[in-house]
């Protein structure tokens, strides 16, 4: 109504289903509220006032894996936590993505020892790695934008 | 109501004996698993709760989900390399951890620290305290249901992080303190930036108080919850705001001053009731006192070097290396082999935002520590949690967990 009166008749847009669905998925990705260590604090900063992740439709952090489609692994994954993380990943509904935030989650970082899993990609498939110890909020946002670009290129044939 | 036998408990029942009462085994009370993935456990804490309806009968913390093996990793790093690891223990108090470790190394090697470095250490440690309390306040209020406070706290936190970035080049993990002093002197823009913050921040603390202190909902959710008597607090080994909330006057900055804390005037706020609300009031007041210390440190900042000139332990400045053969040799020795402190054991404690942070260091005379142990306040406070939680509703548990301000990285390391 308001839009039509302002801009006139807008007509019909034709778009491929693939593009429309991918566009919609990038505009409302719900990350899981899942903090492990130091990076979780920077993830909170990214959510909060100055960096404001809600600009990208991501203000809703869901504490339940059943309601989220993006897992941001923020921090070091220990051997005790690894099975829990895998279970959480399995509980997320498709489609789902994993972003490995920080050096520890990506490759073990400074902790090359008995306790830390040397990269979360040993237990879950990772879409985007963000380097840094911890990464700045800008870096995390950059990682998320990269993930969006990646999602936009997904094909309908791969969905099934 | 389901007992353990009916519920989807996957663990070994034998392990639970002693942690839950006999009533749980008959199905009279319910055993509930809270965490490690839970929005208000501040990381990866797991609590095994035995519930009678909504009332907590037993509460057993299960820690170790963030056990990183930091103490073991220390043994394979040289003394000056290991500073990097201390930041990542209690990640809300990186500079405080640096301070505890550096003080321990300095005690072991009997290094002297120039006054300017000591003042800057105090200044930055207090800013870190403010930083940590801001995260605590934001998340604690968020847990209890006051969302907006979180956004305000993180807005102010960015200002402190900007100061850290200015001096150290990193927002959070600064690694700015080194054995014998600081990494480098602060830049020129440091003083105006801190003064800006000092002018800006007091009004913001008042804003938080307006939102919470007199708020009837906040008071209902926090007053009389998580009571800890002074005797129990001492008996359970509590320190920091958790202990002072119960009215015990014990602050390591006053009792055993380190890094020239005895040069500064500040008050130690004490609580009367030992509940969640009093611990909240104390941390708010501590932020004001920290500002006082920062102001004094900045006003009386001595000039001079920021690193000890004991070349056996502290590398020479870059400018000397170009024309002094001796400096070049010292530099080469320190960066290839590291320094060798005398044999011995030391224990140093500092007041972290959470309580007493102790660093035990054992040296066998080699360039790497033989054993490092950290006495971390979060671990001790977590062992006091069951005592505080018993008899309360499950919804109050998140408030109690928030009020002892645990950081799981600090607890499990």
What does the model show?
The complex is a heterodimer of chains A (160) and B (413). With 160 residues, chain A is mainly alpha-helical. Chain A is 37% helix and 8% strand. Chain A has one domain: Rossmann fold (3-Layer(aba) Sandwich), CATH 3.40.50. Chain A has a three-stranded parallel beta sheet with strand order 1-2-3. In chain A, helix 2 packs antiparallel against helix 6 and helix 3 packs across helix 6. The mean pLDDT of chain A is 86. Chain B is mainly α. Among the domains of chain B are: 59 residues, no CATH class; 199 residues, Orthogonal Bundle (Cytochrome-c3 Hydrogenase, chain B), CATH 1.10.645. Chain B is built from 18 helices and eight strands. Chains A and B meet through helix 3 of A and helix 3, helix 6, helix 7 and helix 18 of B.
Summarize the structure in short.
The complex is a heterodimer of chains A (160) and B (413). Chain A is mainly alpha-helical and 160 residues long.
Task: Please describe the topology of this protein.
The complex is a heterodimer of chains A (160) and B (413).
Chain A: H1 2-7, H2 17-27, H3 38-47, E1 70-74, H4 82-91, E2 97-101, H5 102-107, E3 128-130, H6 137-152
Parallel strand pairs in A: 1-2, 2-3
Chain B: H1 13-16, H2 22-26, E1 30-34, E2 46-52, E3 55-62, H3 70-74, H4 83-87, H5 94-109, H6 115-144, H7 147-168, E4 177-178, E5 181-182, H8 190-212, H9 216-222, H10 230-235, H11 240-244, H12 252-255, H13 276-299, H14 318-321, H15 325-336, E6 344-352, E7 355-363, E8 371-375, H16 377-389, H17 394-403, H18 408-412
Antiparallel strand pairs in B: 1-2, 2-3, 4-5, 6-7, 7-8
Helix pairs in contact in B: 5-6, 6-7, 6-13, 6-17, 7-8, 8-13, 16-17
What is the CATH architecture annotation of chain A?
3-Layer(aba) Sandwich
Across the major sheet of chain B, the strand order is: 1-2-3
Q: What portion of residues of chain B is helical?
A: 40-55%
Rounded to an integer in angstroms, the radius of gyration calculated over CA atoms of chain B is 23 Å
Q: Given the structure, what is the number of helices of chain B?
A: 18
């Amino acid at each position: 109504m308001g839009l039509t009166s302002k801009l006139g008749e807008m007509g019909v847009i034709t778009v491929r289903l693939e593009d429309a669905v991918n566009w919609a998925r990038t505009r409302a990705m719900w990350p899981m509220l899942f903090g492990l260590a130091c990076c979780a604090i920077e993830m909170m900063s990214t959510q909060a006032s100055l960096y404001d992740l809600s600009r990208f439709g991501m203000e809703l952090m869901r504490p339940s894996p059943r309601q989220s489609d993006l897992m941001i692994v923020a921090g070091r994954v220990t051997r005790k936590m690894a099975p829990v993380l895998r279970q959480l990943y399995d509980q997320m509904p498709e489609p789902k993505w994993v972003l490995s935030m920080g050096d520890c989650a990506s490759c073990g970082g400074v902790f090359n020892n008995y306790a830390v899993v040397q990269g979360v990609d040993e237990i879950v498939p990772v879409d985007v790695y963000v380097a840094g110890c911890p990464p700045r909020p800008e870096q995390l946002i950059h990682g998320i934008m990269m993930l969006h670009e990646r999602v936009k290129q997904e094909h309908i044939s791969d969905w099934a | 109501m389901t007992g353990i036998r009916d519920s989807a408990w996957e663990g070994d029942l034998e392990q639970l004996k002693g942690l839950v009462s006999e009533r749980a085994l008959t199905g009279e009370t319910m055993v509930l698993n809270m965490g490690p993935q839970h929005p208000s456990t501040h990381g990866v804490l797991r609590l095994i709760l035995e519930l009678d309806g909504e009332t907590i009968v037993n509460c057993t913390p299960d820690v170790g989900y963030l056990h990183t093996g930091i103490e073991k990793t220390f043994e394979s790093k040289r003394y000056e390399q290991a500073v990097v690891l201390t930041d990542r223990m209690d990640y809300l108090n990186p500079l405080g951890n640096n301070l505890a470790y550096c003080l321990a190394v300095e005690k072991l090697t009997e290094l002297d620290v120039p006054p300017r470095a000591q003042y800057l250490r105090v200044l930055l440690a207090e800013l870190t305290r403010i930083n940590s309390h801001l995260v605590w306040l934001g998340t604690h209020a968020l847990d209890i249901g006051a969302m907006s406070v979180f956004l305000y706290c993180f807005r102010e936190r960015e200002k402190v992080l900007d100061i850290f970035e200015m001096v150290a080049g990193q927002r959070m993990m600064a690694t700015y303190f080194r054995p014998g002093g600081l990494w480098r002197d602060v830049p020129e823009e440091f003083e105006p930036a801190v003064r800006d913050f000092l002018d800006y921040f007091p009004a913001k603390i008042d804003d938080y108080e307006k939102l919470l202190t007199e708020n009837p909902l906040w008071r209902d959710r926090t007053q009389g919850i998580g009571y800890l008597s002074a005797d129990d607090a001492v008996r359970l080994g509590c320190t920091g705001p958790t202990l002072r909330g119960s009215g015990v006057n014990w602050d390591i900055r006053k009792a055993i001053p380190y890094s020239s804390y005895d040069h500064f005037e500040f008050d130690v706020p004490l609580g009367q009731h030992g509940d969640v609300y009093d611990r909240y009031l104390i941390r708010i007041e501590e932020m004001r006192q920290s500002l006082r210390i920062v102001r004094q440190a900045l006003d009386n900042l001595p000039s001079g070097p920021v690193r000890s000139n004991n070349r056996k332990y502290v590398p020479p400045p870059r400018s000397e290396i170009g024309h002094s053969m001796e400096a070049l040799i010292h530099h080469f020795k320190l960066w290839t082999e590291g320094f060798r402190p005398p044999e011995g054991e030391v224990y140093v404690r500092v007041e972290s935002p959470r309580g007493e942070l102790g660093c035990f260091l054992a040296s066998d005379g080699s360039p790497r520590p033989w054993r490092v142990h950290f006495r971390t306040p979060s671990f001790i406070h977590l062992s006091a949690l069951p005592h505080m939680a018993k008899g309360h509703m499950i919804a109050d548990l998140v408030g109690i967990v928030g009020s002892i301000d645990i950081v799981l990285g600090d607890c499990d390391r």
